[in-house]
């Protein structure tokens, strides 16, 4: 489970993603044009929160889900999120991310995958930093 892995290896993960020379924003896999208007301008807030996700071609009731799993949200801004994933999502996919707010309260957000960067975590293996731009949400709900 990602939560257990994350707690056991948090220090190694933090060191791996903060190593000098790792510029995750320089790796682009999205087909979207690169321009200054696309760059984030709002401040990032460190989050480090386990969450679940579903990857699909497009949001909606007729979308086909191709990946389901757990991830860790490392930080977020008003319009984006940085995820640590054990599998790289396909760049053309939309990610439906569900975060837990406690006592059964959850939040749904839908993101467009903008870039993916592999990160080697010492003695653990390869993981992926995934930069996403928000396209929908937040939508708050209660799960019983």
TrEMBL record:
UniProt region (Disordered), positions on chain: 24-64
Q: Where is the composition biased (Basic and acidic residues)?
A: 33-45
Q: What is this protein called?
A: PilZ domain-containing protein
């Amino acid at each position: 489970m990602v939560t257990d892995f994350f707690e056991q290896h948090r220090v190694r993960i933090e060191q791996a993603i903060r190593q000098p020379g790792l510029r995750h924003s320089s790796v682009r896999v999205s087909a979207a044009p690169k321009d200054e208007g696309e760059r984030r301008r709002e401040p990032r807030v460190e989050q480090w929160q386990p969450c679940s996700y579903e990857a699909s071609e497009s949001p909606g009731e007729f979308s086909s889900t191709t990946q389901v799993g757990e991830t860790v949200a490392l930080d977020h801004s008003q319009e984006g999120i940085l995820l640590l994933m054990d599998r790289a999502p396909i760049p053309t996919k939309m990610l439906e991310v569900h975060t837990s707010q406690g006592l059964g309260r959850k939040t749904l957000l839908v993101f467009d995958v903008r870039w993916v960067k592999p990160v080697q975590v010492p003695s653990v293996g390869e993981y992926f930093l995934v930069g996403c731009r928000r396209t929908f949400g937040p939508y708050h709900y209660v799960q019983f």
